[in-house]
Design a protein that fits this description.
- This protein has 131 residues and is α+β, with helices and mostly antiparallel strands.
- It contains 2 helices and 8 strands, in the order H-E-E-H-E-E-E-E-E-E.
- It has helices at 2-20, 43-52, and strands at 29-30, 34-35, 56-63, 66-73, 82-90, 95-102, 116-122, 128-130.
- The strands form 2 sheets. It has a 4-stranded mixed β-sheet, with no helix packed on it. A 4-stranded antiparallel β-sheet has the order 2-7-4-3, with helices on one face.
- It is globular and about 45 Å long.
- The protein starts with a helix and ends with a strand.
């Protein structure tokens, strides 16, 4: 019985070590991006955002040679939130985007809000993963 426990522990440790070594998560390159202003969002994408923004959501949308990546944080009790993008990078198999919702600075406004961010980068075929 003790041998089986040791083998199970060894296999688990080996698996966890292998997963922590990067694999498909290892950064190949940082991707350049811009944050898109509301007035510059394509109409079809605006409609998708409008349908989804009440709840947290993530989506990607391509338009010719461009890739739009959208992250929404759902309805918040006040306004004044902002969203930062600490990382957008490519691995061998994926595009990884990391975003953070930042709370309102100063006195919160009384109105509810639905913060989201739209990031534009060059088109790529890899699937987008959200952190």
């Amino acid at each position: 019985m003790r041998q089986y426990l040791f083998v199970a522990l060894f296999v688990t440790c080996f698996f966890l070590y292998g997963c922590s070594q990067g694999g498909s998560w290892q950064k190949v390159e940082d991707l350049e991006f811009t944050v898109v202003k509301d007035e510059d969002i394509p109409e079809a994408l605006k409609k998708l955002i409008e349908e989804k923004k009440a709840a947290p959501f993530q989506l990607s949308y391509s338009d010719k040679d461009q890739l739009y990546i959208v992250v929404g944080y759902g309805e918040q009790e006040t306004g004044g939130y902002s969203i930062e993008v600490p990382q957008l990078y490519r691995t061998k198999e994926n595009i990884i985007i990391d975003t953070n919702l930042l709370g309102p600075e100063g006195e919160p406004t009384g109105a509810k809000s639905t913060p989201y961010i739209v990031v534009l980068t060059e088109y790529r075929q890899e699937p987008v993963l959200y952190e």
